[in-house]
Amino acid sequence: MRPILIAGNWKMNLSRQQAIGLVEELLLQVDHFEAEVAICPPYVYLDTISQKIGHTSLALGGQDVYFENAGAFTGEISCEMLADLGCQYVILGHSERRHILGETNAIVNKKAFAALEKGLKPIVCVGETLKQREENQTTDIVLEQLYGSLAGITEKQAEQIVIAYEPVWAIGTGKVASPEQAEEVHATIRQTLATKFGKVTAQNIQILYGGSVKPENSKELIEQENIDGALVGGASLKAETFLGILDRLQ
Ligand code: PEP
């Protein structure tokens, strides 16, 4: 059985006080749920939030990272820095980074290797745009991103990776993929992982769904055979909605 993972991506949101308030509210209840729970705040709040979290079950993640270890890379953050602050996860290849900041599969791939080397679990995001879905390119696009992002990754390394299927048309739009639409892509991803890493490893890899997940739709999505949790944007910014997602899974 794969554990359910619910990860919150706060993106570039919340003041410092709001971030502290949110984590305090989450900590009051997070132990009541069976699922693994992670939050990915903006870099500048990681240290403060890490101290709040301490040794509780709430996991911490970065929203991105750079692949070099150190040096003249103005504005960038290394995997070692994230690990040092207590991060266990790092989101890689989010569609906003791919589409707004021009991140390629090759870059995501380098970041995945760098993260694994420092003991961080990459949450590798893949997903098609609305145009690509309408042109029946969903499978091609998702598999191209998957193969490119995971190029050269070994079976052993793959055990540490989480995949997030996030259809771009469903992110922050209120439009959610139907459980059947999502499950179809998740099943294809798992089959592909089985071809690449073997069936046993593929069965152990968590594949999250992301795209307008909220309390009202989380259960029916996560009940699908190949959906092992959610990467949550908007609904992770309020304790009520983030905890509501977890509550519906009980
Ligand atoms: C995301 O940012 O990964 C995401 C899925 O956002 P939202 O839940 O707001 O659609």
Describe the structure.
The chain is of the alpha/beta class and about 250 residues long. The chain has a single domain, classed as Aldolase class I (TIM Barrel, Alpha-Beta Barrel), CATH 3.20.20.70. It is built from 12 helices and 8 strands. An 8-stranded parallel β-barrel has the order 1-2-3-4-5-6-7-8, surrounded by 6 helices. β2, α2 and β3 form a beta-alpha-beta unit. α5 packs across α7 and α11 runs parallel beside α12. It is globular. The model has no long low-confidence stretch (mean pLDDT about 95). Bound molecules: phosphoenolpyruvate. Phosphoenolpyruvate binds next to β8.
What is the CATH top level name? Alpha Beta
Distance between the termini: 16 Å
Largest sheet: 8 strands, parallel, barrel
| Distinct small molecules bound, one entry per kind | phosphoenolpyruvate
Molecular shape = globular
Helix fraction by DSSP (H/I, runs of at least 4): 40-55%
The neighbouring-strand order within the major sheet is: 1-2-3-4-5-6-7-8
What would you report as the Rg, rounded to the nearest angstrom?
A: 17 Å
Query: SSE order in H/E notation?
Result: EHEHEHEHHEHHHEHHEHEH
Class derived from helix and strand content: alpha/beta
Tally the structural domains: 1
The CATH H-level homologous superfamily: Aldolase class I
Strand runs, count: 8
The CATH topology turns out to be TIM Barrel
Mean pLDDT: 97
**Count of helices?**
12
Strand content: 5-15%
Unreliable spans are none
* CATH architecture label: Alpha-Beta Barrel
